[in-house]
Amino acid sequence: MTSARRRTLAVVTRSSPGASETDLGRKRRARRIGRVLAETHPDAHCELDHSSALELAVATILSAQTTDKRVNEVTPKLFVRYPTAAAYAAADRGEMEELIRPTGFYRNKTDSLIKLGQALVERHEGRIPGRMADLVALPGIGRKTANVILGNAFDVPGITVDTHFQRLVHRWRLTSETDPVKIEHAVGALYEKRDWTMLSHRVIFHGRRVCHARKPACGACTLAKLCPSYGTGPTDPTVAVKLLKGPRARDLAVAAGIDPQLVPVQAVTAEVP
Length: 273
Description:
Blueprint: H1 3-14, H2 23-40, H3 53-62, H4 68-81, H5 85-89, H6 93-100, H7 106-124, H8 132-135, H9 143-153, H10 163-171, H11 180-188, H12 196-209, H13 237-240, H14 249-255, H15 265-269
């Protein structure tokens, strides 16, 4: 590392926010993070393909321990084969297991989907309910899945605390909570309720494309000045820019003030986690 680079990193580290912030200061910084994320990821959305609340519930259950891309490869045939809750309730277990096998843990997921269909038929006339209390009482649906369904199928604001969301809000020191429900409430208190669903999408987008678990692209991140964890990953822009992922990787480089030509082709074509 050159002496100039060391001085730059030292300045960023000394001025980094987080450690001695007031509650008001944290809320203001959180809102700034939200605004920058909105500018950085204008394409943020739910990445599970669906056309109904039932399809979204099924896709979200299948997404456990696998990628959204893999789920989206499996669900077209699944949705045609099982178009209603009654169809899931009456499904042949072996046939369903084969259809969803590529998503992993297919036996447990099959069990959840069949029981979900049965519960919907028995309790909700075959429809996905639009209330948190009803959703979390269904097989295979926890609070995280319920928030995905409410936010994207019913337009009810909710915060989705997945692994990406947990990692980023901890790196940003927006909360020290580790329980997902407590994280949801702590972060939710920093933002307007109407922004919760899109905030979740944008944070998850950022976690998948920029702020990776093992090596975040710190030197190519639009949130560098707002992040107390700056320096966790490479700070040299020419190194960090190669860690960006996804079809908009070059747009992300531009947003961070870096020459997009430095983004390798493999970064643009890389599968986001």
